[in-house]
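Forwarding the complex inputs:
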Amino acid sequence: MPHSPPFPFEVLSQADEKLLAEAGSVQVFQRREELFLEGKLPTAVYILQRGKVKLFTTDLQGREQIVHLARPGDLMGYRAVLGNDAFSCSAAALETASVLVIPKALFFQMLDHSPALSHYLIRLLTTELRHAEHHLAGLARKHVRSRLAEVALLLAETYGYEKDGSTLAVQLTREEVAGLVGTATETVIRLLHSLRDEGLLATDGRKIRLLDIPGLQKLAESS
Amino acid sequence: MPHSPPFPFEVLSQADEKLLAEAGSVQVFQRREELFLEGKLPTAVYILQRGKVKLFTTDLQGREQIVHLARPGDLMGYRAVLGNDAFSCSAAALETASVLVIPKALFFQMLDHSPALSHYLIRLLTTELRHAEHHLAGLARKHVRSRLAEVALLLAETYGYEKDGSTLAVQLTREEVAGLVGTATETVIRLLHSLRDEGLLATDGRKIRLLDIPGLQKLAESS
DNA sequence: CGTCTTCTTGAATTCCTTCAATACATGTGG
DNA sequence: CCACATGTATTGAAGGAATTCAAGAAGACG
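Prediction (whole assembly, four chains):
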């Protein structure tokens, strides 16, 4: 369900934009490179400019639970900064990503004299919270099978399709899909096959084609 | 994990406080009475003054998933209002609750000329989002057994204890506990017995006494 | 080409759900 | 205050869903 409104450079004053250009920096991360780590103290907020990034927590057994998928325009790390707290999750690039890094002090400065930015942040947080709660209610009650269908639709909604109009424009390992669904890698594999057998989707390595969206939606709603 | 900072009347200007006194109204709800319903359009935000309230969604099979427990000082329904959207969950009193009802227009008015209120809301949303994500990661991966231990600790953290210092100051039906944990009522019953047999807690009807908090914490962390 | 990661499959087991039946509690109207 | 109706709690048994472990195949990558 993560699809937050993109960061609105429009809400920034000219002065802020200038500050940003001076104090902010653009960094590039390759697949698997980490932008920041769960438990560390934040020094900046991050705006994704190009590429794809996953936000995830790691449990004691070393398994990843992905809590958010970011796309260009998304603001990351701002919760730790706002709450003056350690990062509650880690962030890593899913594919080459370029990121605008805004030092903490600058972010607060901008926040202080921009009511528009405050209001934007409130909207953003509201959206994310709604998604988190929806996700939560789903995880608690639905079978893994339904959740997998939901994740397939989520990926489509978040990153869209290739030119063919049906192949997901993001490629994840089975393990990463498992981290999204909240299940074991083996279960993802078996259930992907099961959904394939029912004609809901097709797989080719890490490529996934959605063949029957209404069918997937129905499955995602059920159980 | 819901324990948001209480609504700070201090951040309100004198003018706002006056408006609130004039346009706001206090309503009392008995146990099971609903403050608002999932899917309906909001007309107000709600500040809990006394009592306990659950926020929950209902799935197709009619099972409730509790997404938040509110306590005095908590603001409710503000997300639907902010997002100009239908309520994403319902709210019902767990015990007699008195609630300050603030009409939507008034809330926006207050928000518009109070940066302090904006900043407060940002903090509030940040806190709730962190809790939601933590809850989410837990639900996805942990066994029901661990989640039940977590819920017991959550209830203690949220509503505290009776005078004896160990009995939870909130009484829920087994079904409500199941709605918090995300499981079936029967499973809650069986696992409560199992935790009792291990000396982690004791039950007497709907009263629950926590006997071994470190033990419960250890269990909640694991699996 | 060989190594390392990722993917796949099978089998056993655990955990949890569901259904069904019964006990207990609670509260209401007579 | 009792009798009954309703809602809640409990227990057993059967079945199903998903995890775990183990082992092998396929793919990626230097």
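Chain A touches chain B through 36 residues (CB under 8 Å).
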